[in-house]
Every structure is written in C-alpha cells, then in structure tokens.
C-alpha cells in the first residue's frame, strides 16, 4: 500500500488516481496529524510526503520517524525545493525529493523504487497513466 500525506486535496487526488490506475492500493491523509492519528507508521510499502504543510511539516515527520527507526521508504514532494530542504531530507533517509509541478522525464531521482514486501512503485512522477 502506498500512503500519501499532503494538505492539498488536488495533489492527493491526482497522486491517488495515478497510482490506482497503475493497480496500487492507496490511502490518503490530509495532514501529518491525520496520518499519525491513523497509526499507519510502518505499515505502508511507501510513503509520499509533502514537505510544506500546516502544523507538522513533512520534514519534521520524516525526521521523527527516522529517529524512531522507522524504515518505510519515503518520497518527499515539494513546491519549494532548496539546499537546506534537500540536505535535511537526505539526512533523515528520504528515498527521493521531487519538486512540484511534476514534469515527465525531469525528475530522475523519482525513478527510485519504493519497495517492501515485494510491492514496487517505479517512475511515480515521470509518466502519466490513464485508466
């Protein structure tokens, strides 16, 4: 299962549809607090996490999870990527950091594979899938 945490409903819906069209099971959350309340940490095959959100930021959640020893693969997405954000993400073990808006072929790091329990999600942002 792919878990998506983003406070932008449009982003959540588009990522959910993209992944469901590729036959992935997806669960979405509108905030880090909602994700934490659902007690899903460590359950997903991959976590797609927005960096800049109201309340707990995606980076704060990633660093907290890393400090606890949670090792679910995490792809961070952000509309404002800078050196400090990239450095914090790498230090906290992010699999990739992808800048929004997504453009086909522009994000080679997004071709990283989220994999646990045999489930893979490749090229999440590099191609558009149609149902």
Labels describing this entry:
131 residues; alpha/beta; Rossmann fold; 4 helices; 30% helix; globular; disordered C terminus
Tell me what you see in this structure.
The chain has four helices and seven strands. It has about 130 residues and is an alpha/beta fold. The protein has one domain: Response regulator (Rossmann fold), CATH 3.40.50.2300. The chain has a five-stranded parallel β-sheet, sandwiched between helices. The protein has a two-stranded antiparallel sheet with strand order 6-7. Helix 1 links the parallel strand 1 and strand 2. The longest helix has 13 residues. It starts with a strand and ends in a 10-residue tail after the last strand.
In one word, what is the shape? Answer: globular
Residues in helices, as a percent range: 25-40%
CATH class: Alpha Beta
Mean pLDDT: 79
The number of domains:
1
Beta-strand residue fraction: 15-25%
Element-by-element helix/strand order: EHEHEHEHEEE
Structural class: alpha/beta
- Spatial strand arrangement across the major sheet: 2-1-3-4-5
For the termini, the CA-CA separation is 19 Å
The major sheet is characterized as: 5 strands, parallel
CATH architecture, please?
3-Layer(aba) Sandwich
Rg calculated over all Cα atoms: 13 Å
The name of the CATH topology is Rossmann fold
Helical segment count: 4
């Amino acid at each position: 299962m792919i878990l998506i945490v983003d406070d932008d409903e449009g982003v959540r819906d588009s990522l959910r549809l993209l992944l469901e069209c590729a036959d992935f099971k997806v669960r979405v959350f509108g905030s880090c607090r909602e994700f934490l309340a659902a007690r899903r940490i460590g359950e997903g095959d991959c976590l797609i996490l927005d960096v800049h959100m109201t309340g707990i930021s995606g980076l704060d959640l990633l660093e907290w999870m890393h400090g606890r020893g949670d090792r679910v693969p995490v792809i961070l997405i952000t509309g404002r990527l800078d050196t400090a954000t990239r450095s914090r993400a790498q230090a906290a073990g992010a699999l990739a950091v992808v800048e929004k808006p997504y453009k086909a072929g522009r994000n080679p790091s997004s071709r990283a594979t989220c994999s646990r329990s045999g489930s893979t999600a490749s090229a999440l942002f590099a191609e558009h899938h149609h149902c």
